Amino acid sequence: MIALIHDPQIQQIINPPNTTSFWESDLKRFEDGDVSLDRHTAGENTIRAFQRLLIFLGYSTSSAGAFSIDGDFGRGTNRALAQFEFENGLSKPSFPTKTLTYPCTWRNARSEINVIPDVLLTLHTLEKMLEAAKDAIAKKEVSCGDFNEAIFQLNALHIRNSLDCRKINERYGAAAEKASQNVKNLKGYIIQPEWILSIIRQESEGVVRPRFEQHYLTKFANQEPQTDLAELRYRSMSFGLGQIMGFNYAAIGAQSAKELYTASLEKQITSIARFLTIRSSVRSVVSKTNPTADDFKIVASYYNGSGYATHHYDESVGRWFKEFKLLRA
After folding, report:
1. 236: Cα separation from own chain's centroid
2. How much is the pLDDT for 93?
3. Are 235 and 229 in contact (CB under 8 A)?
4. What per-residue confidence (pLDDT) applies to 218?
5. How far apart are CA 197 and CA 273, in angstroms?
6. What pTM was estimated for this model as a whole?
7. Helix (H, G, I), strand (E, B) or coil at 45
8. What values do phi and psi take at 239, rounded to 5?
9. How confident is the model over 82-133, as pLDDT tens digits?
10. Which residues of 105-123 are buried (b: 16+ CB within 10 A; e: fewer)?
11. Which of 268, 282, 325, 283 is nearest to 188 (CA)?
12. 242 three-state secondary structure
């Protein structure tokens, strides 16, 4: 009934590295067309497979907005399923947009999520999800714009992997140099590659880990009720190695917020360079090879907001900068 479940690419999406027979036997519920999979009845391994599929399709699975593969069909995964059904015309007629854009602020978005009712993962919805995944692969509208890279990043999320400065430099150092040169050629701005790499280390630890912000979706839906909800959802997420918010898409040269999600790693790294050179006060800092403590505070305030000091963002970026400078000497 769901033949696509056996497709080799789909198998890579729903199965983690080093799949065990226990995992495979739990997936039998999908193959048998179990129509009662909800947040109360599904087994952990089936939920993990489902969460991997949702994440591959670009949906957050945690009530706090993270892209988590934890085997918990909690409120976040329930919201993701509800979003997919709504965006693909699968919701019941009585399911209004405002249910997914419930009133909230960043402080209470997580606690108010229970206004979204429990939804079922039906056979029909699963079939649509599998079809959507194959369609995204064919159009290269997947994370990082490449299927193999998307699977690498998905698996890294699954095992909660992260890269240290040395591995980040090995994997992304050349791209950071290229991004630096691109910005110089295009705008005439100078940005040292160490700044780009330091942001990657601080924001994502070298693993693409998007994050969804419900309060932004609510805000944007109220401001632009006629705009496609999927696009507004992408604007409400931070993307890529630099965790740049989707609503910044135009400022860094993208045509839509979704383009940030599908951007190649090289484009993601260039986006960091562009973002760091938008404001003149920051631009003058990231050109430096020997920045001061105050310089790191300027970048931290710009990139992380006024509350950066509460978690020592400036000090961390300073530490990464010095380490990258030593590695690249």
Report:
1. 10
2. 78
3. no
4. 98
5. 10
6. 0.93
7. helix
8. -130, 155
9. 999 999 999 887 777 889 999 999 999 999 999 999 888 888 898 999 999 9
10. eeeebbebbeebeebbbbb
11. 283
12. coil
Contacts 24+ apart (CB under 8 A), 29-35: 30/2, 30/5, 30/126, 31/2, 31/5, 33/1, 33/2, 33/123, 34/123, 35/120, 35/122, 35/123
**CA-based Rg of the chain, rounded to a whole angstrom?**
20
Is the pLDDT at 42 greater than 90? The verdict is no
Helix (H) or strand (E) holding 46: helix 44-56
Task: Note whether 240 and 208 are within 8 A (CB).
Answer: yes
Pairing of strands 244-245, 211-212: unpaired
The Cβ of residue 301 has, within 10 Å, a number of other Cβ atoms equal to 17
Compute the distance between CA of residue 136 and CA of residue 218 in angstroms, rounded to an integer: 26
pLDDT at 35: 55
Convert the pLDDT of each residue in 195-251 to its tens digit. Answer: 999 999 999 999 999 999 999 999 999 999 999 999 999 999 999 999 999 999 999
Q: Please name the amino acid found at residue 69.
A: I
**Type of residue at 227:** T
Residue carrying the six token digits 């590295």: 17
**CA-to-CA distance for 99 and 109, rounded, in angstroms?**
13
